[in-house]
Amino acid sequence: MINSVRNTVLSVLNKNNYGYISPSDFNLFAKQAQMEIFEEYFSTYNKTINMENARMSGTDYADIKKAVAELLELFISIDFLVPNPASSGYISNNYFAPSVITVGNDYYMINRVNCYTTKLDSGTNTANTPAFQLIDLGASFVTAGVSVGDVVVNTTNFTNAFVTSVSATVLGLSNNIFTTIGNSYAIYKASNASEAEAVSMGKIMLLNNSLLTAPSNIYPAYTMSNNGILTVYPSTISGYGAVQTVYFRYPKDPKWTFITLTNGEPVFDQSQPDYQDFELPLEDEYKLVVKILQYCGMSIREGEVVQYSLGQEQQQSANS
Fold first, then answer.
1. Same domain for 199 and 166
2. Which one of 13, 203, 261, 295 is least enclosed by Cβ atoms within 10 Å?
3. pLDDT in tens, 22-74
4. Range of the domain at 216
5. Rounded distance, CA 225 to CA 237, Å?
6. What is the pLDDT of residues 79-107, one digit of tens each?
7. Is 147 exposed, middle or buried (CB count within 10 Å of its CB: 0-12, 13-18, 19+)?
């Protein structure tokens, strides 16, 4: 879709010789346009909820809320949080918030935090073949109560998988997370997960000091600090695999890539390793074109382009 959007934008600009937008400028404008539309999804969803409460929204094919919810769910990710160890090496109950470095995505909004409070077993894998297995000749997985669906985490390289089969010393896994002998692991009971409640930094001290309201394995809690650290309570919930988050991630930055020039013009090449298409649905292509044209008009200081794109945007809003 990104090539189609760029061709449309250039076609509009070149119609009256307004100017040329370089690939680098287009990528910057495309990123901002995508972010604007992404953030509009949340306000649109809120508006549809209010419409539904006022009985101004229909059902079946007229169920607007369902369509917006499906768009939002495209950006939901589920990942285990990486613990933030103390300088001494002790694994505390502090965890890094989702980021590109820790889980591969930056988070926009955390939807829920799940705590796996029952650790069934831990140890070290003693073999790495065949693939998609955890082999520990000193373990007794059946006796430990491991069953299909439980969570296995590689605490050495911060990867995870689900159990697909169980025997005394071998577990079948959904992902090939053990490729090197000597990696440490932990196994958590999937059915014993508890949702942690988000509380403020000022409230957590009051909760911890009360015998009645103190967080427990059944009713855990967490706080978020301004440096992107989640602290989970009680402090016995620690280590990789113990805390999982469901969150809305930011869309990936779009990038129109090229490799060759033909008559001085770059030629689109999506085989480049840094190529990234828009993550928005096809029906939002029109919105992307309009918003990118606004940025282009401001860049080349051409008011007519800005006014045209604003007019198209207003017309679209009136029809939606």
1. no
2. 261
3. 888 888 989 998 999 898 888 888 888 887 777 776 777 677 788 888 888 88
4. 79-115+194-249
5. 18
6. 999 888 754 455 678 899 999 988 888 99
7. middle
